[in-house]
Write a structure and sequence with these properties.
The complex is a heterodimer of chains A (about 80) and B (about 160). By secondary structure, chain A is α+β, with helices and mostly antiparallel strands. Chain A has one domain (about 1-75): Ubiquitin-like (UB roll) (Roll). Chain A is built from three helices and five strands; from the N terminus they run βαβααβββ. Chain A has helices at about 5-10, 30-40, 40-45, and strands at about 1-5, 15-20, 50-55, 60, 70-75. Chain A has a five-stranded mixed sheet. In chain A, strand 3 (about 50-55) and strand 4 (about 60) form a beta hairpin. In chain A, helix 2 packs antiparallel against helix 3 (about 40-45). Chain B has about 160 residues and is an alpha+beta fold. Chain B has helices spanning about 1-10, 15-20, 30-40, 75-90, 120-135, and strands spanning about 20-25, 45-55, 55-60, 60, 65-70, 95-100, 100-105, 110-115, 140-145, 150. A four-stranded mixed sheet of chain B has the order 1-6-8-2, sandwiched between helices. A four-stranded antiparallel sheet of chain B has the order 7-5-9-10, with no helix packed on it. In chain B, a hairpin with a 2-residue loop joins strand 3 and strand 4 (about 60). In chain B, helix 4 runs antiparallel to helix 5. Classes of the chains: A alpha+beta (about 80), B alpha+beta (about 160).
């Protein structure tokens, strides 16, 4: 299960989570490909690194291996704010 | 030594520590939060504070209200990291970091940073660093309500 926030929820048709099957031993970049196939708009933002993937509450590198039970989320750009 | 000991004994130490980093829906009292920082140590001689409030304009557009969404767990984790790094790297005595979520009215409080140090220079530096870092690394998102509709804000595209 992948948690969604902010505009990614909208792009997934107002869902708070995505349920996508990812075979064992796969990496974050494989997850991005799976999302890209199902939700191309989110996929594009992931490719451009405008949306980041977090694994276990840390921003994940594309080569990080995803394990069963990992907490995965898609993080759109944070609220930030003008300096 | 004994003085420091007795000061600490007066505090509900673990409770207070948890209260120094919070993500909450309800508003906060600045006086109460200042007291919370001050009573951590009698060595504090300078306190710097940043309060972020909800503006009624954003990028030239009217804003009627804001909704903040956060990633429960990760948001708190990042705020705790900010407090710990500020304490370690800036020579301050205490740092408090609060952020609200949910619907926020125009003019209402959003975020509060309080840094207490022996002297003002460290307090100012830690406070500025903490709010800048918060905006970079904390998974919190802002939905602005405008007369034209709702917009998720991206400040770092």
């Amino acid at each position: 299960m992948i948690q969604l926030f902010g505009m990614t929820k909208m792009l997934a048709g107002n869902q708070g989570t995505l349920s996508l099957a990812l075979p064992d031993g796969k990496r974050v970049k494989d997850l991005v490909s799976v999302i890209d196939a199902a939700y191309p708009k989110i996929g594009e933002l992931l490719q451009k690194k405008k949306v980041l993937v977090s694994v276990n509450q840390e921003i994940a590198h594309e080569d990080l291996e995803v394990k069963d039970g990992d907490e995965i989320a898609l993080l759109p750009p944070f609220a930030g704010g003008n300096r | 030594m004994s003085l420091e000991h007795s000061t600490k004994a007066d505090l509900p130490a673990t409770d207070d520590e948890a209260m120094l980093v919070r993500v909450q829906r309800e508003d906060f009292s600045i006086d109460e939060e200042l007291r919370r920082v001050r009573r951590r140590s009698k060595r504090i001689g300078g306190i710097a504070m940043f309060l972020g409030t909800a503006r009624d304009r954003s990028k030239g557009k009217d804003v009627d209200g804001i909704t903040f969404e956060h990633y429960e767990g990760m948001a708190q984790k990042k705020l705790r990291e900010i407090r710990e790094r500020a304490l370690k790297d800036f020579g301050v005595i205490e740092v408090l970091v609060l952020h609200r979520y949910g619907e926020i009215g125009i003019g209402d409080n959003i975020v509060l940073i309080i840094a207490g140090a022996e002297h003002r220079a460290e307090a100012f530096r830690a406070c500025q660093w903490a709010i800048d870092e918060l905006k970079q690394i904390t998974p919190i998102w802002k939905l602005e309500h405008t007369p034209e509709g709702e917009v998720w804000v991206e400040e770092h595209p």
